[in-house]
Amino acid sequence: METVIRTAIIYIFLLVTLRIMGKREFGQLSPIELVTLLIIPEMVSQALARDDFSLTNAIIAVTTLLAMVYVTSLIVQRSERADELLNGQPTVLINRGEFIPANLAKERVTPDEVFSEMHKAGLYELTQIKWAILEADGRIALIPEDDHDQVKVQQHEKKRGEEATLS
Q1: Per-residue DSSP letters for 16-60?
Q2: Are 83 and 97 in the same domain?
Q3: What CATH number has the domain bearing residue 113?
Q4: Model-level pTM?
Q5: Contact status, residue 116 vs residue 110, Cβ threshold 8 Å
Q6: CA pair distance 37, 69, nearest whole angstrom
Q7: In the chain, how many domains are there?
Q8: Per-residue pLDDT of the chain (167 residues; tens, 9 = 90+)
Q9: Which domain does 39 fall in, by range?
């Protein structure tokens, strides 16, 4: 039973710690997948290296971990709040061609990282971006301005400029 308790404590600790680190640290892995990949080799290595002669202990530890991953995935699937806590939410980094500095700082994303993603998508000016969104998996999604929307924005800005001049 001690193995089950130790495994559960390590799993929860790693999951919380990695979630606190933020989305950008995960790349393509979800926090649950990353925790699982980090823990399994450690659990099995002692049994394989014969530091702990109990192969049963390693099997119990891995089984406990996989059961916790399964239960966590069920909870995330059934609860939006749990999904939000464990996997995070997308964060808007650019809105209508303007950076949102508070969100960039909160997610520790630099404008250069956003520009790099823009260039990969063939976009070179902030005005071409309707939204840039940091997804829960750490990728930056870019939603370009439609030509029609871009014309409307320019007309709106021109109208505001004319109104300001008249005032």
Answers
A1: HHHHHH-GGGTTTS-HHHHHHHHHHHHHHHHHHHTSS--HHHHHH
A2: no
A3: 3.30.240.20
A4: 0.55
A5: no
A6: 11
A7: 2
A8: 777 787 777 777 777 766 665 655 555 566 677 777 777 777 667 655 555 556 677 677 777 877 887 888 889 889 999 888 887 889 999 999 999 999 999 988 999 999 999 999 888 899 999 999 998 878 899 999 875 444 444 454 555 555 555 54
A9: 2-87
